[in-house]
Amino acid sequence: MRKMNFTKIYPYLYILPAIVFIALFILYPVAQGLYLSMLDYDPIMRISPYVGMKHYARVFRDPVFLTAVRNNFLYIGVSLITEVAAGLMIALLINKVKDSLISPSYQVIVFTPNVISMVAVGLLFSTIYHPQLGALNTILEKVGLSSWTRIWLGDPVLALGCIIVASSWRYIGFVAVIYFGALQRIPKELYEVASLDGANSIHQFLYITLPLLRGITTVIVGLALIGGFTVFAIPYVITRGQPYHSTEFIVTWSIKRAFSMENISYGTAISVVLLGIVLIATALYLKWREKEVYEY
Amino acid sequence: MSTETVKIKIRKNIGKIVAHLILAVVMIIILGPLIWMVMGSLKGKVEFYTNVLGLPKQFLWSNYVAAWIDAKLARCMLNSCIVTVSSVIPVVMLASVASYGFARFKFGGNKLLFFVVLVGLMITPQVIVIPLATILARMKLINTHLGIIFAYIAWALPFSIFLLRAFFMSLPQEIIDSAKIDGCSEFGAFWKIALPLSRPGLFPVAIFSGVNIWNDFLFAMIFLRSDKLKTLPIGLTALEARFSSSYTMILAGLTIAVVPIAVLFVIFRGEFMKGLTAGSLKI
To answer: Which of A39, A161, A197, B11 could form a cystine bridge with A48, CB 3.0-4.6 A?
Structure first.
């Protein structure tokens, strides 16, 4: 009798510790977050009256939140195009010279920014963008383009661009290495046969390489979507949302409201909305991509 | 070689030569900021103003000393080591055991509980950091290493389980069975046979979790308050606050923070690249 019961619960012993961690520190916070966001936590009076959807109504009318959402979308759009285009190009170039001795070094160098913390990247670039001491303006002056120098982080539009540049610098190598790996798995025979049939390299690229990279591009875009909505460290470190919240992002705003502005419930509401955005975006994206994978 | 042969050789390889040239430019763009960082970190304050782009005239190692001591980077680095190692080891242990359970046992709730793991995968840390802070506060784990380690373990588990389960599912049943016939217990089969075989999967999991935990900013900023416990990314922001206009010091501090992980990366570059892009190629 005892032995049979033990056999039944035995598998659960393997998975239980992990499940407990996940339930306690991931799932429970979600539930707690939903609950918190419907209260009006007042740290001074130490009361938390139930207010239902009050915070959510406010979120969607909050101009800073809407600016933040706009910034997230811009961030995703621009950095995605940059990273995919540049990453793919770099992967193709490395692939072209992959028999040379130096090509492994190319991969290592281009991937290096990806192992550095986002904070370090953000700090480094904020020093580069400094109006007098930074490398950017100095280089511009040296090559005679002093009319192009700006106070990069002081202008709302430029500051956003600066954040995107810093982020792309970090992720281009990541994309390039992934594409390079995917390129290796395309059978050489496909290209040989195409050559025999008279296809030149442009044809080969458009009709063999690109379609077969669709699968991996899906993964990259998916990661960029999720990462783009949840980006935090780089914008926070470079601009902290200045000037005047024009470079605020969803997560930076949520954290600011929750902790520095003592409005935990509102900040939590923003993060719940973020969860919704991420889930919906992922679901839509997967649905859209369902039909487009080529097998070979 | 005659000039004719050389000309033909060049024409044949023009594509590759152009590729190398473009890649060289790319490498300069990528390495540029890092080189600037190192060069600037060795300059004196005045020289940094006047000679922004050139090589430093003398190597001011005192910048490094100042950054190291004033910003307490030594302590931060130690904390990062403690927290990262204390998180990665449990992650690898718990994830391998759990993945094995999901992969090789049939039991009611297998699918459901794995779905729980997948749900955990979808919930990114930025979404739960605020409520998690209140939960940890209630458990008196705020501003402790233990608290943030728990958070990191929970964060790393879903992805690690996802990866390792695929690994364990690809093991042929015969290996396990023959081990059991030879007298191995169920757990022995896991410990002595399956686990060693899964080493190619354990490394990416360890690297992925380890590097991301080492570099994490969000949890560290919210869950750790006192100087004694701060990890490296927080130390960097403290550095910036402390030295705000002494860019040479900031760059020195940045270099200190960047060098260890960069060196590790160069040594273990294969594992790093595989680990950090893990899952992207498997999906």
So the answer is: A39
